[in-house]
Amino acid sequence: MMDITKGLLNEVAFKMDCEKHGIGIELNRDFYIGTSNTDEGQDVKKIKFSGGSYFAPKTKIQVKDVQYFMLISKNEFEGDRQAGLFIGYKVHWKKSSTGQRFFRSLGGRGEEIFSDFPALNGIRVERRGWASRNDFQELAAGKNFKGMSFNNDNMFVYWDDLKDMENLFKKMKGLAV
Fold first, then answer.
1. 8 touches 101 (CB < 8 A)
2. Is the dihedral of CA 119, 126, 155, 141 positive or negative?
3. Measured distance CA(134)–CA(157) in Å, rounded
4. Residue 86 — φ and ψ, nearest 5°?
5. What is the C-alpha to C-alpha distance for residues 125 and 127, in angstroms, rounded to an integer?
6. For residue range 75-124, what is the model confidence (pLDDT) as tens digits?
7. What is the rounded radius of gyration, in angstroms, for the C-alpha atoms of the chain?
8. What local confidence, expressed as pLDDT, does residue 81 receive?
9. Is the pTM here over 0.70, yes or no?
């Protein structure tokens, strides 16, 4: 639940960023039942430029949380969910403290648990950059890169190698059908 929420925060940050550049974004907020029905890797459902109408982009767009790596599991990168454009933000939200408060509050207190949470005035989100498929490298499980190793086979772009977001908004105009 916390991972899904954090992922949705990245998408909302992208939507807000696009609005500042005169681009309307409709996020994929459909609900999918079961594990075989998904958004198929399409986080951005429709795009609209000023004066136009919404259209489905011809390229799948995924919005990802990026710490030091934009990390995509190899299964997702090569499977049915594969996207052509990956956009990265870093959300500064400690899931663990929120989760701990939530679980500590369970125990028959009903709606009273919400008093344990301070009012949320905002969450800091930082632009990291974007990448296309050909920017990714393979990072095999257990292999070290920049002092880190991972348990699964992944495709990655190091955050310093992500492209500038200002160029992305120009590129998006080419995503029309």
1. no
2. negative
3. 10
4. -125, 130
5. 7
6. 888 877 789 999 999 988 776 656 655 665 566 555 565 566 565 566 78
7. 18
8. 76
9. yes
Q: How far apart are CA 115 and CA 126, in angstroms?
A: 29
- Two tokens, residue 159: 């955050």
Q: Are 46 and 56 in contact (CB under 8 A)?
A: yes
- d(Cα 115, Cα 119) in Å, to the nearest integer? 9
Angle at 34 between CA 2 and CA 39, to 5 degrees: 70
Considering Cα of 176, then 130, then 9, then 141, what sign does the dihedral take? positive
The string of DSSP letters for 21-73 reads TTEEEEE------SSS---TT--EEEEEETTS--B--SS-EEEEE-SSEEEEE
Q: Which amino acid is at 112?
A: E
